[in-house]
Amino acid sequence: MNRNVSRIFAAFFGVLAITLPLFAGDYPLQVARNIMLYMALAITWDMLLRSGQISFGIAGLFGLGAYAAILGVIRAGMPAWLSILFAAVFSGVAAFLIGLLILRLRAMYFSIVTLALGEIFRIIVHNLHDFTGGPEGVVIQQGVIFGGNANKLYWLALVGLAVALAASTWFEKSKIHFALTAIRDNEISAKSSGIDIFRWLLLAFVVTSAIQGFLGGIFVQSYGFATPDTVFSADFTLLPLAMALLGGVYSTTGPVFGALLLGLVSEWLKLKIPYGHLVVYGIIIIIVILFMPQGLKQLVRRDAGKTEGRNA
Amino acid sequence: MVVKRRTAFIVALSAAAVVALILWKPTVLIYGLQAAGLYAAVAIPMGLVLGIVHIVNLAHGEFMMVASYAAYFGCRALGMDPLLAIVPTAIVTAVFGWIMFQLTIRRALKAPELNQLILTFGLAIAFTQSINLIFTSQTYKMPLDYVSASMDIGDLTFGTWSFVFVAVAIIFAYGLQLFLTKTTTGKAALAVGQNPRGAAIVGIDVYRTYGLVFALALALVGAMGALFLTKSAIFPSVGSPFTMKSFCLIAMAGIGNIPGILGASVLLGVAENFLRAFRPTRDWAEIVFFVLIIVVILARSLKGRKS
Fold first, then answer.
1. Is B241 among the domain residues?
2. Structural domain containing residue B227
3. Is any Cβ of chain B less than 8 angstroms from the Cβ of A239?
4. How far is the C-alpha of B132 from the C-alpha of A275, rounded, in Å?
5. Count of CB atoms within 10 A of residue A306's CB?
6. DSSP conformation letters of chain B
7. Which pLDDT tens digit goes with each residue over B208-251?
8. Distance from A109 to chain B by nearest Cα, in Å?
9. Tally of domains within chain B
10. A259 in a structural domain
11. Can you give the pTM of this predicted structure?
12. What's the CATH number where A48 sits?
């Protein structure tokens, strides 16, 4: 019964999301695109978190994808749609190679290394003037994808979100869920149950990074330019993290609602206080960690503990 | 084991120094040392917190940034020199740090490590963005004459003011070492760092000690915040790189090894200035830290797995 209700809700929101351009103006569409982008990033961050690994490198892989896409168009003459796929593959392969090295690290060491890697990508892009355009960045001469049609750009962002949602659901419904949860709960007992920890972590890391690269590709194609400071901006790490934490981690629904809420609030705050509206994110992170470690989910679903217990 | 690590450090250090001298770039050595002093002086308080409270304080650099702002506006209101503001800023920052510790970090001490990491990350954002909100992203700088003091040796001219950071770093490192080994409070802190439960059994108030150590570290950060004003302009994100760099130095020296931070920072400072000395590699100096932090962490994890 409960499941049916949530299915009806999901279907309703799905139809609403797809048909939004038919009755919303350009500004709401732009806001919706932003929220969807951050929502998708929040979901991918949470997907890796389900294995207990906390990444601070979202911006790094996002930016890497963004530059792969834009340079694919400019240097290799790729069509826009192909460059977005190329971004996903590029970030995925990069994550695979990096993952081979760093996925043996745990806890703060993993987090710090992902943060450092993001900085390294940014500096490399910043310094390879001839290839990447250096600090001034690069612009796509032939213009934005779809000629800048707001509706089509919206649907493109929706595709990005759909990919993240699909991957997250796949992670939740398949045996990956059990593997990642077991690794998060206790690595030793996971290992003795025959789980190849490294392989599952690598899978999760590569899939989430590829999606982050894909989103980077979509982002850069919809704006038509990239500079190191915009695409490697710390916002792409911070905002998704705060959104997922607020909504509640270890699920798909948590980041979705967190992103919806924070996205709308911050859009409103942006109009009120142009400088430093991000302070809200910092405060939300602190409050959530201290008082409701399970996020809003804790308040909405009173039986959360019961369900979690059954799943674990 | 510890001795072996030290000798490895010394070998690496002297190798770097020799290379720099052979290439006849004495400025590399001078500016490298000055930079090393600054890095070490900022990193040492973080090492103290990590070694005893076992918290990776990702808001470390941001605490210094806040202290710098406090010192700047204090100095400007009273027409004071930043050097006179060192002690007041240290006290104010220590109190502020103690309050922040009691309000936030203390509650997360028993939580999983990830929560602590995210919590201090949240503090960092809250600090940077609050300052951004209040003072905007404008930069502030103290006009001071004595910082441009310079020295000539032969046809070589270099600024001497930054050597003050080297002195401060050495004072911090050995002062803390004395505090931890000679005073009762210091010994208690060391005991808590080694084994909180054991320390509680012998009657040490663990949480009080954590609060004290955090406040002491923040006092040092506050002093550095005022001193930092003499050298650099301040803006909301000025502290952020220091968090990463400090963590990098601590990871290199090994958690709990405060004098080791001095050696690690000399290595990094010289390496960074070495790249900066040549035109083609100048822009890449920034990357040294991040590459080294990854290499050091990976090397440690490999070594840990073998033994």
1. yes
2. 2-15+26-135+157-306
3. no
4. 7
5. 10
6. -HHHHHHHHHHHHHHHHHHHHHTT-HHHHHHHHHHHHHHHHHHHHHHHHHHHT----TTHHHHHHHHHHHHHHHHHHHT--TTTTHHHHHHHHHHHHHHHHHHTGGGGTTS-HHHHHHHHHHHHHHHHHHHHHHHTT--B----SGGG-EEEETTEEEE-TTHHHHHHHHHHHHHHHHHHHHSHHHHHHHHHHH-HHHHHHTT--HHHHHHHHHHHHHHHHHHHHHHHHHHS-B-TTSSHHHHHHHHHHHHHH-TT-HHHHHHHHHHHHHHHHHHHTSTTTGGGTTHHHHHHHHHHHHHHHHHHHH-
7. 999 999 999 999 999 999 998 888 889 888 888 888 888 888 87
8. 7
9. 1
10. no
11. 0.81
12. 1.10.3470.10
Enumerate residues 6+ apart whose C-beta is below 8 A from A53. Answer: A103, A106, A110, A201, A204, A205
- B50–A contact, CB cutoff 8 A: no
Q: Tell me the per-residue pLDDT of A122-168, one tens digit each, with 9 for 90 and over.
A: 888 888 877 777 788 788 877 677 777 778 888 888 888 889 888 88
CA angle B264-B265-B266, nearest 5°? 95
- Report yes or no on A201 lying in a domain: yes
Q: How far is B188 from chain A (nearest CA, A)?
A: 27
Is residue B150 within 8 A of residue B160, CB to CB? The reply is yes
Structural domain tally of chain A? Answer: 1
Kindly state whether residue A251 falls inside one of the protein's structural domains: no
Please provide residue B275's backbone torsions phi and psi, each rounded to the nearest 5 degrees: -65, -35
Q: What is the dihedral angle through the alpha carbons of B110, B111, B117, B121, rounded to the nearest 10 degrees?
A: -100
Per-residue model confidence (pLDDT) at position A215: 93
> Alpha-carbon distance A311 to B283, whole Å?
51
In a domain, B149, yes or no: no
CA distance from start to end of chain B: 12
Q: Tell me, yes or no, if B121 comes closer than 8 A to chain A by beta carbon.
A: yes
Structure tokens at A169: 């659901």
- A3-34 residue pLDDT tens: 777 778 778 877 877 777 777 777 888 888 88
- The answer to whether A127 contacts B137, with C-beta atoms less than 8 Å apart, is no
Domain of B183, CATH number, reads: 1.10.3470
Residue pairs spanning A and B at CB distance below 8 A? 124
Q: Residue A164, Cα to own-chain centre: how many angstroms? A: 8
B284:A286 CB<8 A: no
CA B145 to chain CA mean position, Å = 26
Residue A55 located in a structural domain: yes
Residues 269-288 of A with CB under 8 A from B: 273, 275-279, 281-286
Domain range for A71? 31-233
In a domain, B142, yes or no: no
- Kindly state whether residue B8 falls inside one of the protein's structural domains: yes
B108·A245 Cβ contact <8 A = no
